Amino acid sequence: MTWTDVADVLAGVCFLLGALLGLIAAVGIVRLPDLLSRMHAATKPQVLGLLFVLVGLGLRLRDPGTIGLLVLIGLFQMLTTPVANHMVARASFRAGQLRVEGLVVNDLEDDDYQGPSRGEP
């Protein structure tokens, strides 16, 4: 067995793991009860799944220029996803779309923004 055969098998395993994590993220978005749980299911396995797919592509293509581009894609994904997730959660909190009674820690309870109440337009 040569190095290319081993790399192709590892790439296939990475593709399968990435697809499985994407499926887990999709099931979590559909099945979980509240917004914060769905956001967690959308970001954690989805980003890890993407990283597995990128590693699989790097192992399969083996081109240094392409591998550099895949590394940049992975880095930007890991940098932007937590920030975007945080901004969506904060906007949802301010819009009154979260069940505050279910939170264990509420760091935004002292926030001066009161937002619309549930019954008001």
Automatic annotation (TrEMBL):
It comes from the Bacteria. This is Na+/H+ antiporter subunit G. GO terms for molecular function: sodium:proton antiporter activity. It comes from Aeromicrobium chenweiae. Belongs to the CPA3 antiporters (TC 2.A.63) subunit G family. It holds the Pfam family PhaG_MnhG_YufB. InterPro entries: PhaG_MnhG_YufB (IPR005133).
